[in-house]
Design brief:
The protein has 177 residues and is an alpha+beta fold. It is built from three helices and twelve strands, in the order E-E-E-E-E-E-E-H-E-E-E-E-E-H-H. It has a four-stranded mixed beta sheet with strand order 7-4-10-9.
């Protein structure tokens, strides 16, 4: 069943997030204002080494006051292709230059409330080019053996949706190979 949108108004905006109220009509005729969070889109990179390790960052997220492992990721700049954003984020956040980016999977992690689009890429291999230029991203950067990733997910050591989607797809790919 399709809902119809009759209009939208912004109630808060800044360069990172727009909070809107959308006048929607449900199939049963009920009409109301639905909150929608409009976000800039995200590029995620799963960088896998020849030794079957994946490049990850140990970081703190203040919103949930929790530490967890994440894949390199970040916002796509205006006019920037998603694969270029993924490669840029790997370099800035880890100091590694990834091999060519290949599309892995596309996801909309919370499409009932936000229009956020996640573009997840895989790169096989990377070259260390120096320390990260983004100094506030993570406490540790490590190459994690792929055979440890499932346990990390089970122990909730990986919780971000962008990381989970990318890691699970890489694990599925590796199992099929």
């Amino acid at each position: 069943m399709e809902w119809k949108a009759h209009g939208e108004r912004q109630i808060y905006t800044n360069p990172w997030v727009n909070l809107c109220l959308v006048d929607v009509e449900q199939p049963d005729g009920r009409r109301w204002e639905h909150h929608v969070v409009r976000l800039r889109h995200l590029a995620v990179a799963a960088v896998v080494s020849d030794q079957r390790e994946i490049l990850m960052m140990w970081r703190h997220r203040f919103i949930t006051d929790a530490w967890a492992w994440e894949l390199p990721m970040g916002l796509i700049e205006a006019g920037e292709p998603p694969e270029a954003a993924a490669a840029r984020e790997v370099e800035e956040e880890t100091g590694w230059r990834p091999g060519p980016m290949k599309p892995l999977i596309y996801a909309e992690p919370a499409n009932g409330i936000t229009d956020s689009q996640h573009y997840v890429f895989r790169a096989d291999g990377a070259t260390h080019i120096g320390p990260p230029t983004e100094k506030n991203e993570s406490d540790r950067i490590e190459w994690i053996p792929l055979d440890r990733v499932r346990g990390m997910i089970d122990r909730r050591e990986v919780v971000s949706s962008g990381s989970l989607v990318g890691l699970l797809y890489v694990l599925m790919d590796e199992a099929i190979r």
